[in-house]
Amino acid sequence: MIDGPYFVLVVLGVLGTGLVAGVFCGFSTFVMRGLAALPPAQGVAAMKTINVAAVRPAFMAVFMGSAVLSVLIAVVTFVVWPGEGKVELLLGSALYLAGSFGLTLVANVPRNERLARMTAGAPEAAVYWPVYVREWTLWNHVRMVASAAAALVYVLALT
């Protein structure tokens, strides 16, 4: 059984990945739908504001902190190689690092950066907006599932 500081590390991993999954779930289930219902200029302006607000300490501590915890959990798992839960711990770390953190860097951030370069009321932004919403939301669904799955398998490692 996992115990001591290692237990605390995994519990923090569960909390972090679960919180990130919740944020992504909110975006996938209602935020993006609400923004998509706005006229393009308003949707673009709102999303640009959200993207700026997202990179503040409150969210970044949870998002980046969960990545650091996932790396620590994987490293400690390789070093300690516990009798139980090793597969779940390594899988949880891989799910979060690749499916949430990594995917954010390669799928969502480039779309956010492209949107940031556009003027909200410009014709180019109006054309890109439905494409952005569709593609960004698709990848967000994947991030949500990966983060939730990471939290789940971390919990399974503790049982």
TrEMBL record:
Instruction: Tell me if Transmembrane helix is a UniProt keyword of this record.
Output: yes
Which UniProt keywords are given for this protein, alphabetically ordered? Membrane, Transmembrane, Transmembrane helix
Where are its TM segments located? 6-32, 53-81, 87-109
Name listed for the protein in its UniProt record: DUF1772 domain-containing protein
> What organism is recorded for this protein?
Streptomyces albidocamelliae
